[in-house]
User: Fold Alpha-amylase from Rouxiella silvae.
Amino acid sequence: MANWWKEAVAYQIYPRSFKDSNDDGIGDLNGITDKLDYLQDLGITLIWICPMYKSPNDDNGYDISDYQQIMAEFGTMADFDRLLEQVHARGMRLIIDLVVNHTSDEHPWFLESSASRNNPKRDWYIWRDGKKGAEPNNWESIFNGSAWKYSATSGQYFLHLFSERQPDLNWENPEVREAVYTMMRWWLDKGIDGFRIDAICHMKKESALSDMPNPLGLPFVPSFERHLNYDGLLDYVDDMCEQVFNRYDIVTVGEMNGASAEQGEAWVGEQHGRLNMIFQFEHVKLWQDGQRDRPDAGLDLIGLKNIFTRWQTLLENKGWNALYVENHDLPRVVSGWGDVEHYHHESATAIAAMYFLMKGTPFIYQGQELGMTNTHFASLDDFDDVAAKKRAVEMRRQGRDEADILAFLSRSGRDNSRTPMQWDDCANGGFSAATPWYPANGNYREINVARQREDSGSILNFYRALIALRQQMPVLIEGSYALLLPTDPNIYAYTRTLNDSQAVVIGNFSPQDQDVNVQQLALEGWQLLLGNYHDEGELQRLRPYETRIYQR
Ligand code: TEU
Ligand code: CA
Assistant:
């Protein structure tokens, strides 16, 4: 196969929480380098690290004040170079986060732009006059509150779709594009293997910046859903590909909220030559929307099957999927879709097999391979994430009571996935000898790498087996996907087929036994390759959260 990234198994690192090498309580680049053997041993071949650039850390590095310097807390550029070299020495590849929808308000570009109305960089950001003494329009920021902030220096407002410390760049301006491309080439010439492109769906703004309809009379109206994937966005992407990406042997993955499976081909269809993959959001929103309506709703399995199957089928032979169920913006998947209390091991591994063996490049978020869970928040003071804090303010404004807000943020908050990686049962899970910047999840004594490494039946070793299986069996990389039992509310089953070789992945996503129609699935005579129970069990019955992988 021509494209190395199709065979890759990817691992996402949140540097602040991965491994602290110098015991100041903050994860760092040398910490990542120290753990490369762990990743290699697991079978990882591609690493994505979240932003490690200079940043005042309003949004944990997603607010960049210098694209060509390393955040002091994370180390130096020499540390980065050594990390890259050590990744390559192990035959792995490294991609970094490209955050160019916005910069930090401390970036020199923004400092210049905000200095005066006639500064040469004024138009690098999106400045507007107020309307009758108020914000230029009624858009709400993704992190709540107005999407505009007033700057007294020049008497105008600037647009920020995220926090007010993350002003949006004006991508209409060719000078902005050129400056960003120069920066991108600088990293690519250094030898990185590609980019995960942050918030790409938000880069194109509706040019009139017109008010949202406001039937409910809200102070500010959520606007981002309407402006996601706005007309003309693909022109930016084409330009970026032509000017930069297409000149390198790299992989590009866009963070693409707002693309439906039907639109997927425009983004990653090979004949268009745009991005290699996108992180689509449909399965994530299914869960989030379900949570909004019914807080205790777990997994809507049929909804999930519909979404994954549409992406699998519509991109078949056309483009490539990025497969993921966790990242640093989401709560832990086993806490949302599984059953941590009764079937932690079974549900974490059933989820793993289900998404990991579809067609596409699987991404594992740090700690997912251990079945790390959501953490415990005793009060609203326990939240660190800027998004959670601002959400709490907005919920208070809506009159929601504290207990309600705490419950909502506890199950949806991004801090859940940002607790320190659990390496062993030493203090702070072995992440750091110092007090970590964010407290470790109290369950690190039970859930940690050291313990799971020794246990052949652990979640970690299940992931290791999945990765090995995928590397050994071309059908699991290239085989086409077909859904079985589409209307079964408890069982997710599908085949992968390549010429005369076939695999079946079957999983029970309920805490009850489920009968399997062996005839319907034609399972007789198949060979069991991997399962998440100690014994084979009965062909015709799946135990709670049991998953099995067969081959013909
Ligand atoms: O997230 C952006 C992101 O999730 C949006 O694209 C999405 O549309 C929105 O949250 C609606 O749910 C990225 C990073 O992953 C995140 O950590 C950053 O906070 C954010 O960009 C700003 O850089
Ligand atoms: Ca450190």
